[in-house]
Every structure is written in structure tokens, then in C-alpha cells.
Amino acid sequence: MMRKFIYFLIPLFVVLFTSTGLYSQTVNARFSTSFYTWERYDSIGSESSTKHLRAYQNILLDVSQKKWSFNTNAQLEGDIIEKSGRGFSYRFYSLYIKGSNLFDVMDVRLGRQYVSAGVGRGYIDGAHLKFKLGKSKEYQLTAYGGGLSPLSYDFDYGEKYQLKDNFSIGAMFQYYGVKDLMLGVSYYNKHRAVPSYYAPRLDSALFTKIVEIQTEPFADQLAGFDFSFFKPSYQAMGKVYYDINLKKLYRADLNAGFNVAENLRFNFGFLYREPQISYNTIFWVFQHKPLSEFEAGLDYTLLKKYNIYFKVSDVMYDNDNSAKFSFGFSHANYGISFVKYTGYAGESDGAFGYFNYELLRSKLAITSGLNYSNYSIKNYSEDKVSAFSGILGLVYRPVDHFTIDLQGQIITNKIYKTDTRILLGFNYWLFKKF
Predict the structure, then answer these.
(1) Cα–Cα dist 157/238, whole Å
(2) Contact present, 26 and 433 (Cβ < 8 Å)
(3) At a CB cut-off of 8 Å and minimum separation 6, what does 343 contact?
(4) What 3-state class would DSSP assign to 383?
(5) 284-303 pLDDT, tens digit each
(6) Dist CA 125 CA 127 (whole Å)
């Protein structure tokens, strides 16, 4: 059924965009072709290895005509040397038709799309409606629903796929009636069928027999509240999410910041989080406990182009805690940062630096980055181990709208003595108005 719905989009697209001629169309497209090569050893310490070359083709295409547009984001990939994983595969992350400001009150999207509406997030193959009401569009209502997209982002739903057991619906109401303030409440309901399995059980006579276990498709039912408030000198945003099936609060998040002085800003945040695990999964047989995190930091802007920052955070577990300290500075072309973890999560020290430079204006640029860490995992090992990674690349633009990217990557750690990879990519942009 869902496959037929997706195929219905193609003729609908043709009707919409040919009914009034081509003269008012605009096309915005990006094509990215890349080749990724690496060497894989059969096992640790083995001298036997295989060399791999894999190709990727990414396509982003938007075709617009007046209030309507056709949008897609797809990826094709396949092995050229040595099969790895599925070999050839394709993914459609989005494939939908969009109508904007219809009747001056409504936006609509039909097809595969990513939904983000408060507590509701995820991919669906269905419909998304947004109504903008009120004199100044201060009341906005979003409603969506459809079948769950396959986890592989293709169109193979499986023979046992039933829409009534694999869908998500939701809604969000937002209020913008007070300047610089947004208030939103949302609801989300997702059903995902879990494959049945066989397990030994006792019958009424206490004899053991193998029975088929079928789990109900009730996965997630969530409610949320979001708000944001933005002023030039101070801002705040937060969210509170509640799991209706499990009857408990699973996330509360608050972030705020304000200017202490010119070019100096103070930020702080609080996070309470429980693992958000679907109602019908086996993971609830394990013990789960919430955690809380406090974070505070200072940001200073120097000469309008350098940013210097310092942050400290503390994560509180049931009977322990873990602290994180980070500081550094950044510029559009270069920067360096340091981070330290201590406490329950383990001991770790790290540094990261990057340098980007334009060798020929609008033609040739160099990109680079280095990362080093030294860490130990508490309760497992007191010995510290090191890890290093680096990238070095060139970006060449021979003509407008076309670039060639070449990047080398290296990593060395306790598991990999040296792991080197090469990425070669070609990118082409197109914008055309007929």
C-alpha cells in the first residue's frame, strides 16, 4: 500500500508542473559523486587484507513552480573493488511534493519526509499539514501522519508490513502572540511491529512447550512542551517531554544565556534525561536510571573575529558524578580546543585543532584537522591509552558551481596501528529559472 502511495507522487508531480507550462519553473540541484578507499585486515595482527573502493552518488533536487515544489534527497552506493555489506544499495531520505501558503493559510507536504514537531521526530511516508491562523499568523497548528519509512530508506516494506501496525501520527500547536516568545505543545504516537519469536513457556499442566511470542505494536506515545524567548541581550529555550505509555518524565532541558558585558556572554544549561526506549522492546528487562547535567560557560569575542570560551559541566548519576572541562579559541580559519573528563565516566584528556586556508581566492583551499586523546575507562582499566586522528584535504573549484575534493584520513589507536583512507569527491550545483 505504501509503495503505491509513493509511486502516486510521480504522475501527480507531472500534472502539477506541466499544467501551466515550464516558463515559471525553477530548478535547484546538487550532485555529489565520491569515491572512498580503504584497506581492511581480516583480524588483529593478521597479514591478510583486502582493498576496498566504494562509490557514492548523492542527489538533492528541488523543482518549484509558483506555490508547488518537488523535493528529493537520494543516495546511491556500490562497491567497485571487493564487496562490503550489501554491495549496491539506494536510499531515499526524502521524496515529497510541497505546497506553500495555500489559500494563504496552509502548507502541505506529501510523500517521504522527516518530521520535526516538538516531541515528534522521525521519517514517515505520508502527509504533513501546517495551518497558520490569526491576524498575524500567531496561531500555528501542525498535524502529520503516515506509515513508518523502512529503516534502510528504500521502498522494501516487507511482506508482513501492515500500515495499522507501522505508523506514526502527531500534532503540535504553537503560539507566537507575544513578541520574541514561542510556546508549543505537542503529541506523538508511533506504532512499530516487532517480529514474533519462539520461546519455552509453561502450560497449565506445568509442562514446557515452545510457543510463539507476539508483541503488541505500541511503541511510543509522548507529550511535550517547548518554549523559546530571544532578545538581543538574552535568550532562553527549553523543553519538557513526558512518556504517556510508561507514565514518567523522560526529558527536561533548559538553556539560557545573557550578556555580562560588551563581547562577554554567560551561558548555562540543565538537562534531566531518562533513556527513551520504546514500550514494546526487550530492553526494559535491563535496569535504567536517570541522570542530570549542569553546564555553565563564558564566551568572549575579541576583535570581532576571535571567540574564546570556557565551559564546565557536571553529570550526576545515581551514586556518582562525572565532570567535564573544556576551553579554547576559534577563528573562521583556525582554532584549537582542549577537553578533560574525570569521575565516573572515566579519565580523559583531549585536544583538537584545525586550520583552513585559501591558497587561491575562490579557486583552491586547504583543510586540515588533528585530534589527540589520552584516556582510561574507570572500573575496567586504570591504564591510559592514546588515540590520534588527522585529516588533510584540498578543495579545488575550476569553474563556478563545480568543486573537486580530495581528503586523506588517518587514525591510530589501541586497536588500529594505522588506518588510512582516501576520499575523492566531485560536487556540482545547479540553479536555473525557466
Answers:
(1) 37
(2) yes
(3) 315, 320, 321, 322, 323, 378
(4) coil
(5) 778 888 999 999 999 999 98
(6) 7
